[in-house]
Design goal:
The chain has 11 helices and 8 strands. With 294 residues, it is an alpha/beta fold. It has a single domain, classed as Rossmann fold (3-Layer(aba) Sandwich). An 8-stranded mixed beta sheet has the order 1-2-4-3-5-6-7-8, sandwiched between helices. The C terminus is likely disordered.
């Protein structure tokens, strides 16, 4: 069991924890979720030689609900603030759902603090939802049944393989939403528009791994959404479609996602090491291009 640490921000505190040693990786969950959703990924990355920080969104988990903003840009600024606070950047940013949007904005805003991004079921544009989903969301925002409805919805978008400990995780989510100020913060988070992030996708300028569950109910066509995200970022983005997984592929199929993310991180580390080492020394007597051939 990890112990929460706190990052002071202008309007409140953010709860996070750090494990391991090595290059920094910062993980952010999505709306309504907790940083413990990374309970399967964190140990794998620590074992692979990375320092992993997981942080709760504003108004979620152990973070304060005293903020005036709960949108993608606020979450993205929190990611950058945590990287600076840990003094170990640049870092790889990993984000699920809304956390993925935050990672995109952060990478576009301050690329010098970001090595790469991993986007897990990321919302990087506003969804076009059918009427019944809009009605369900409106229902979830009503009291007194809102917390129970959110718990049921969270379970439903774990389509496919059910992650270990799902019942306990949902219970913690519901308990957190009942804490003072949390429901108000959640409602404000739900109303976030992803349009400011959509316009920044082409500015990411860093390698990206777009991970999407093949059964993700939050998207009419999960693969098309993943391709849109990757194509908008550019040639540096790859896509991993995860079978038998919904909106939380990192929790539902860690057997597929962890090796892929570890490989992505190792590739970034190798590339960075090569840049630091520089070009290999030329053999004695080799002529520089454009030099004197006389």
């Amino acid at each position: 069991m990890t112990t929460s640490e706190y990052l002071e921000r202008p309007e409140g505190r953010l709860a996070y924890d750090v494990q391991g040693d090595g290059p920094l990786v910062v993980c952010m969950p999505g709306m309504a979720d907790l940083r413990s959703v990374y309970r399967f990924m964190t140990p794998a990355l620590v074992e692979a030689g990375y320092r992993v920080a997981t942080v709760d969104l504003r108004g979620h988990g152990d973070s304060d609900a005293t903020f005036s903003s709960y949108d993608d840009l606020a979450a993205g600024s929190d990611l950058l603030a945590l990287v600076r606070h840990l003094e170990a950047g640049p870092a790889v940013l990993i984000g699920n759902s809304m956390g993925g949007a935050a990672a995109v904005w952060a990478a576009a805003e301050q690329p010098e603090l970001v090595t790469g991004v991993v986007l897990l079921g990321a919302f990087v544009r506003d969804p076009v939802s059918p009427w019944y989903l809009k009605a369900l969301m409106a229902l979830m925002l009503k009291r007194p049944w809102g917390v129970a409805a959110m718990g049921a919805y969270y379970r439903s978008i774990n389509a496919g393989t059910q992650p270990a400990g799902l019942a306990e995780h949902v219970a913690r989510i519901k308990s957190g939403l009942r804490r003072p100020g949390r429901w108000r913060a959640f409602v404000r988070t739900v109303k976030t528009s992803h349009a400011p992030v959509t316009s920044r996708l082409g500015d990411v300028g860093r390698p990206a791994l777009v991970v999407m569950g093949e059964k993700d109910p939050d998207f009419p066509d999960p693969e098309a959404e993943a391709r849109f995200t990757a194509d908008s970022i550019g040639d540096s983005a790859d896509v991993l479609m995860v079978p038998e997984a919904g909106h939380y592929p990192h929790a539902q199929r860690p057997d597929v996602v962890n090796p892929a993310v570890t490989s992505f991180l190792n590739g970034l580390r190798s590339a960075e090491s090569s840049e630091v080492a520089g070009p290999s020394s030329r053999s004695e007597g080799q002529t520089e291009p454009g030099g004197d051939h006389a």
